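Subject: Sanity check before I submit

Could someone independently write out the structure tokens for this chain? I want to compare against mine line by line before I put it in a report. The sequence has 424 residues.
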Amino acid sequence: MNTIKEDLLHYLWKTKNFDHNDIKTTDGQEINILSYGNHNDDAGPDFLNAKIQLDGTTWVGHIEIHLKASDWLRHKHDKGYQNVILHVVMEADIDIALSDGTYIPCLELKSRVNHRLIGKYQYLQNNKTWVPCVAELPSIPSITKEATKNRALAQRLTKKANEISKELIELNNDINELIYQRLAWAFGLKVNAEAMLTLAKSVPYKYLQKHKDELIQIEALLFGQAGLLPKESGGDPYVELLIREYQVMQSKFGLKPMPSVMWKFSRLRPPSFPTIRIAQLSKFIHQVNRLDDLIFSSDIKQINQALKIKLEGYWLDHYRFGPPTTERKKNLGDGTKSVIIINAVVPILFMYGIDRQSESHKELAIEMLDKLPSELNAITRRWTALEMTNESAADSQALLELKRANCDQHLCMSCPIGHKIISD
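---
Independent answer below. Compare away.
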């Protein structure tokens, strides 16, 4: 029974995939399972509100599952387990009693599980290929692959929503501040995301709102706090105005700039320089009246329209402060807009749907991903080579989650493809 984890036993119990003929507890009581209970992903017993009969007496309570019965002691289960009515184990190495001295009925499964099934499970657990099921994937039905992606996408969005919900609590439920920080982080893309988030945290959204009608003041606040403003204007009237405006607001709000060394310029194409991203973020804040109205009351066309940012003036012929370059439009590209929607708008919208129990907002979040082009990277390309479709951002987000959170961790029993492989 090497390389077996509790997830296999959870699968066996949930799918009823074991020999039910003449089942008895280890002390000889006949078992009749009336309800297997509801799988519990949180703390506490593994399956809640089950119903069984032991020698004809009906019991209602919880099911706890372990590889060995002695794991009960190793896990130090507390009073939350007093309502366990059946202990399901692969090996009953000891008897377990509750604090009142009552022994917990135990069902041992090791002689009731198909050895071929266990062999397939161990194969998936021990396989060191890019994904454990790489050899079996071509024969997996499309409907199972789609179910796997749908599950992975829901898992990814729920995980991100939970993270964002915690951030919202830390921000005293200021939804506009949350949206602003998340958008700033997304504007930074991968290289400068954390620096952009630090910048947003150093300049609260309410400060920017007070000056949102004046683009120059928003730019002064953000460039000044970013530590990117030159000490001298060099005779340029725009830079001189930024310096002057920032000095006033720095005194007004008691601001301290972040270290400029946090920003990365090297190995970036000039259109992705942090100076350009800050200028674009400034223009976005200047153009949008209320961030919460935009996120929660718009479809993807309206979001894209709001992200249609056109830089003008100084930034037409500059990528950073200093000598001018050739004049060139610096609009926010379609790819960057997609990244912002995927990483900021969609998770916030999904979080809002969970928080307000609004299926329409959760569906809108997924619909946005369905309408965005798929992400192309090393992981999604490998999946495509394995005949997993990647036709939209919903697909690519699901495939990224599947690889990193499931396949890399060998969580095959949390996957419809894994279920299909071991059950056939």
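---
OP: Matches mine. For the report I'm noting this point. Residues 6-113 form one domain.
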